[in-house]
Design a protein that fits this description.
With about 375 residues, the chain is an alpha+beta fold. It contains nine helices and 20 strands. The chain binds fe (ii) ion (FE2) (2 copies). The site of one fe (ii) ion (FE2) has 4 residues, from β13.
Length: about 375
């Protein structure tokens, strides 16, 4: 407040507008408005409509060594039949993250560990899910009767509304994966329903890994009708094939200045995202790669599939190594660096880009100063 005039909106100064003068009558008016569940737009115009996106989320990193230990303690402390989903939730380091149970923006994430012979009881929800397998042997998921085997660094879909249960076979190994869901979005839209299946686990209704019947091999079945679901019929994307695709891509392309070589987990019928609300990528940073910075609308959560390096996010350096998880909030500058001089680094990531695109608000900007790099 300056004298008896109030800087109501910083745009007043930029636009050279006259300021609203605070008077006792105006104060009384504001109080009357408040008493009627109303307010004066001009008092908060800049907060209501900022000049550019203002995220309420912070860049946050979770170290795998620490979070893996937390998952192991959860295994000791609670049984899956008691807890249902024995998930360690990743909460963004911000009030918004804790309030919305969000890893970043519209995205939820957790880490789930299962011992051999254990199952997560079958259920379904409106929220879509996808999972990135971090370690283990013998894990599987059953999605609407499709039994899908899972190995390290595989990426698998659990589209919204599908029945799903998970498990690890009795002669397998403790398996840990990262869940990604659009729960904060579905809760904001007040559209999330949840239901429990009438059996602890589904009976597989199709041959194992039919994907389904089997677009996974690029084979579209004749005679049973076209795939009519809004998600990809390739429900699992294997690590070996993904890594090989990136190696081959690097032989024919320079990649992008921001993300190195990158592939989208796509719906082969459309070339678009595999799910309606969340997308996912795998990117490869060549040895010594130092990407340029950019920023965009939409939130991204990374899982280091392999390698060591760092990312500068909003001017802050976050060092990472295999299976660390970190996030880049909306409209925040970020650049990635592979610190290894001889090995590639691979970053899995998932995002809310399909939502941004559907709403026509996916916007991107390169960092134009200092050779494309944020100040050290
Ligand atoms: Fe679920
Ligand atoms: Fe980016």
């Amino acid at each position: 407040m300056t004298g008896n005039s109030t800087i109501i909106d910083p745009r007043d100064d930029v636009l050279g507008r006259a300021r609203v003068t605070d008077t006792p009558e105006l104060q009384a008016f504001y109080e009357e408005l408040a008493g009627r569940n109303a307010g004066a737009f001009w008092k908060r115009a800049n907060a209501i409509e900022p000049w550019e996106p203002e995220t309420r989320y912070r860049p946050t990193l979770w170290r795998y060594a620490e979070m893996r230990a937390m998952c192991m303690r959860a295994l000791e402390l609670v049984k899956p039949e008691e807890a249902g989903r024995r998930v360690v939730t990743l909460l963004n380091d911000s009030d918004a993250g804790r309030e919305n149970v969000a890893v970043c923006g519209w995205l939820f994430s957790g880490m789930q560990a299962m011992r051999p012979g254990e199952i997560t009881p079958a259920h379904r929800h409106t929220a879509s899910a996808h999972r990135f397998i971090m370690e283990g042997k013998g894990a599987y998921t059953v999605v609407d009767g499709h039994h899908i085997t899972l190995g390290a660094n595989d990426y698998v879909l659990t589209p919204g509304g599908c029945w799903h249960d998970h498990g690890v076979v009795a002669d397998g190994e403790v398996s840990i994966w990262q869940d990604g869901l659009d729960i904060p979005l579905m809760n904001s839209l007040e559209t999330n329903f949840y239901a429990v299946y009438d059996q602890p686990a589904q009976t597989a209704a199709f041959p194992t890994d039919d994907l389904p019947l089997s677009y996974g091999g690029g084979l579209r079945p004749e005679g049973i009708g076209a795939w009519d679901k809004p998600w990809s019929p390739v429900m699992v994307y294997r690590w070996d094939a993904t890594r090989d695709a990136l190696w081959k891509l690097a032989k024919v392309s320079d990649g992008t200045p921001f993300d190195g070589h990158m592939v989208r987990y796509s719906n082969p019928l459309t070339g678009g995202w595999a799910l309606q609300t969340m997308g996912a990528h795998m990117q490869m940073l060549k040895p010594g790669f130092h990407g340029q910075a950019h920023r965009h609308t939409g939130n991204v959560v990374y899982n280091v599939a392999r390698g060591r390096g760092y990312s500068i996010i909003g001017g802050e350096r976050f060092d990472w190594s295999t299976h660390d998880i970190f996030c880049v909030p909306a409209w925040t500058w970020h650049e990635h660096v592979n610190l290894d001089a001889s090995e590639e680094a691979f970053l899995f990531s998932f995002n809310d880009f399909p939502v941004m695109e559907a709403l026509g608000v996916r916007i991107e900007e390169p960092y134009s100063e200092n050779g494309g790099h944020q100040p050290a």
